[in-house]
Amino acid sequence: MKKYYMILFFAISCVTFLSCGDFLQEYSRDLVYASSCTDLDEIMIGDGYMQRMPEGSYGSTSITYSRTSHYFPHLHVMDDDVEEFVSGYFSETSLISPASWCRNLYTWQEEPFMTLSNSPIDNYDYARLYKHIGYLNVIISYVKEFQDDPEELRRRVLGEALFLRGAYYYLLVNLYAKPFSKETADSDLGVSLNLTEYIEDKHFSRDPVSHVYKQIVKDLKGAAENLAGIKQPTIYRADEQDARLLLSRVYLYMGEWQLAIEECDKIIEQKVTLYDFNELARGQVINTSKSPEIFFTQGSSSVQILMTDDWMKPAIGRYRVSDELYNLYFKYADQGVVDLRANFFFKRSEKESGKYLCIKGTKAYNGATSVFDAFVMRAAEVYLNKAEAQAMLDQTEAKNTIKILMDKRFAYNQSPNISNLSGQELVNFIREERRRELCFEGHRWFDLRRYAVSPKYSHAKEIVHKVFDAASSYGGAGVYKGTYVLKPYPNDNAWVLPIPDRELVFNEGVTVDNEKREVRTMIGNNN
């Protein structure tokens, strides 16, 4: 007869790092009884994976910040792939417009989590990710208690939980800490590591970046081992390929290029399918649940709300594809090169002539089940990660690797000639391919940070964002207001998000905030 284990989930205490007494008083109702790995699996679906927002709900049709709304929508507005709309009415006091929520993040303000009407925004992402981690810690700990359950079930539950915990620490350390640099990772403050399933009556300090990355690698390696040979029925459940792909990405961030190559090779051995854009109908939405390229996805979709010029919703969208990014698809046009991705990733704005919006995963265009831009992993990244790692090691095979992707994305016999590229020129080309391919999937902000501290071929970039006053009418043109500049890393502290105030208060000074951001001055509208 199976034993019944009473599990007191301390996940919420992990969110706020409350004292043990406070936690027990406020959250003693969170008692969960697990009698098998099947019970743990159900808990993981409900509380380990990111919550999916119900389609058609208020939170899914506008940008909001709450415990149940979009995951980190600001990740899509801080980098150089996005610009603000010139056209279209919006009210600075209306919370329907994403500009109300995201303008201060878009312009890297000293206090980024403030609305345009100067109301504080609760940044729940930090808390939500730790809440997920809290549940996962318990699942990871208790799997071993159910030895009578089938081995494959135990391995799958453990593997998924390890993958998710590694993924959440990857997100936390890249949002709230400095990028990984071998020279400083042992001293740079990362995020708080909590790996226990029980309540600890203590305040939590921040672990070094190196320690966090070491734990991420350990979790993802454990996930890959436990998920080996297990086939998942849906892209919403993690498998071995997902663990190895994220591990290869983490190795790139760490400068462990040979290890990244090895993980990519293990994925390729299991077969990787790419769309051939030459064979697709123009305008077909790429990121759908039916796509053979999608490895895994979870969370929420923000880009389709940030970028829309639907005349029936004039106050919703406030962002568009940057000119710099869009022009990158035509960089080699004078050489007869035809990059097909521009036809599939973007659509022309109806409001602003010659400007474009991202439609890589917009549901409204074909009714397909969601692929979430908060967290999506695609087959194309396998070749991008491998090629970049090979180029960093000066391996000539890098060109053959990246050509596998290029042959599927450029018109037949009309792709860039890279035969003479080597060294930094080849690395730069692969990085540009990464930007063209993975735009608006949560990569660019993290990539810019890691390029700045790369031990080889480092590149630190300044970002310029323009802002516009509201138009006087729905169809009117906005007025250029001014420009904000983010200086290259590490010369600007705004490359790292501040730790939420509530975490600092609850931890009574034990958790240290990131370096204070500068008061950012807008450059005038004389250009």
From TrEMBL:
It is found in: Cell outer membrane. PROSITE patterns: PROKAR_LIPOPROTEIN (PS51257). The keyword Transport does not apply. This is RagB/SusD family nutrient uptake outer membrane protein. Transmembrane segments: none annotated. The lineage of its organism: Bacteria, Pseudomonadati, Bacteroidota, Bacteroidia, Bacteroidales. Its main location: membrane. Residues 99-252 form the SusD-like N-terminal domain. It holds the Pfam family SusD_RagB.
